[in-house]
Amino acid sequence: KAYLERIKEVEPQVDALISITEEYALKKAEEADKMIQDGNINDLTGIPVIIKDNMCTENIRTTCASKMLEDFVPPYNATVVENLSNLGAVMVGKANLDEFAMGSSTENSAFKTTKNPWDLSRVPGGSSGGSAASVAADECAFSLGSDTGGSIRQPASLCGVVGMKPTYGLVSRYGLVAFASSLDQIGPLTKDVTDCAIVLNAIAGHDPKDSTSVDKMRKKDYKEFLKEDIKGIRIGYAKEFFGEGLDDGVRESIESSLKIFESLGAEIKEISLPYLDYALAAYYIVSSAEASSNLARYDGIRYGHVATNYEDLIDMYMVSRSEGFGKEVKRRIMLGTYALSSGYYDAYYNKALKVRTLIKKDYEKAFEDVDVIVGPTSPTTAFKIGERVEDPLAMYLADVYTVPVNIAGLPGLSLPCGLSNDLPVGLQIVGRHFDEGIVLNAAYAFE
Ligand code: GLN
């Protein structure tokens, strides 16, 4: 009830939510009370959570911040939602996002722009901007976001909270509305690293309903990695991180963070990721190609927006899609369709896949010498609302440090590491595949 009160108080300023699920939350909280009375209690019993509105919630509207799905009510829960629900977590709302998770500021939402709680004239980042802002504004104890190219870590950085994208395959994508299936991954946004480990415990694990979910992993307790001691851990920083476009204030925070790691006993090493420069280009080809295919299902027949005025079947598809999708989504569909078309497939899509392999190899090589790689999450702090809407390329640059991590499928965590002009700066820690433990260990010691 206290969180629902808080939502009513701050939501008019922050606009983090597409739905407030009050009735559901009160019912769920009663169930949690009952669980506690029965002695059936765990870390998440009764804990209020907000879910990004691209994860399916049974009988609760799931819009992807798109007119296309404005009235879509899924008949089932995403696996992560089901997991949290079984533990007694209480969903209090569904968070705003960039339409279909395409964007870095929530300005591509068809419904509203979320404001950064640190400065309401600035963006919270995106696409999980509503999820990050809702944690920063205390509308929930934690939230879930999805990250295809940085959409958990970049908003976490801009809103001063902890956000983690797990290794591709660790968390089930079942019930997450697909953007780019080979890159999408769900993860927690939390107040601190301990909460991050708790939420990861709840959502990680094999799911037969997601064919890319990994099943040979032994289930880990991520809380066991929350140790102050990082003596001897080898931390790499890539010289390529400190190039053009990085704000001075962000650079200073990252440099002093490296010194803190050193004073904690870690060994700091310079590494090189030579193909980093090509990551954004490869990402926008691969993700748009996959998006153009995934979004083909919105044809006005199976579900979603249906046009009322049309001439024949083809026209119905066209008018439904023209009306239902926003500008950025259309831009990606066109880009992706072009990259996949015969004649251009080899020049764009296949080439991007080759670059993807080179970037993976860069990381494999780097991880021969270091245990984690540390650097900035985002090149700048939160920018002003409206500042980049007319310039998609400037917007895409917000993800320069996060997309390579998705391309390689690695785990990455962003945690607050200081302020620049009174705005939070995020530090990104990246680990080897399924090495979330050491990432959490480094983050916990730093925090
Ligand atoms: N900002 C990136 C994009 O627009 C990443 C989005 C995401 O991770 N969902 O594609």
From TrEMBL:
The active site is at 52 (charge relay system), 127 (charge relay system), 151 (acyl-ester intermediate). The keyword Ligase applies. Transmembrane segments: none annotated. Its EC number is 6.3.5.7. It catalyses: L-glutamyl-tRNA(Gln) + L-glutamine + ATP + H2O = L-glutaminyl-tRNA(Gln) + L-glutamate + ADP + phosphate + H(+). Keywords: ATP-binding, Ligase, Nucleotide-binding, Protein biosynthesis. The keyword ATP-binding applies. GO terms for molecular function: asparaginyl-tRNA synthase (glutamine-hydrolyzing) activity; glutaminyl-tRNA synthase (glutamine-hydrolyzing) activity. Residues 1-440 form the Amidase domain. It holds the Pfam family Amidase. Belongs to the amidase family. GatA subfamily. Heterotrimer of A, B and C subunits. NCBIfam families: gatA. PANTHER family: GLUTAMYL-TRNA(GLN) AMIDOTRANSFERASE SUBUNIT A, TRANSAMIDASE. Allows the formation of correctly charged Gln-tRNA(Gln) through the transamidation of misacylated Glu-tRNA(Gln) in organisms which lack glutaminyl-tRNA synthetase. The reaction takes place in the presence of glutamine and ATP through an activated gamma-phospho-Glu-tRNA(Gln). This is Glutamyl-tRNA(Gln) amidotransferase subunit A. It comes from Thermoanaerobacterium butyriciformans.
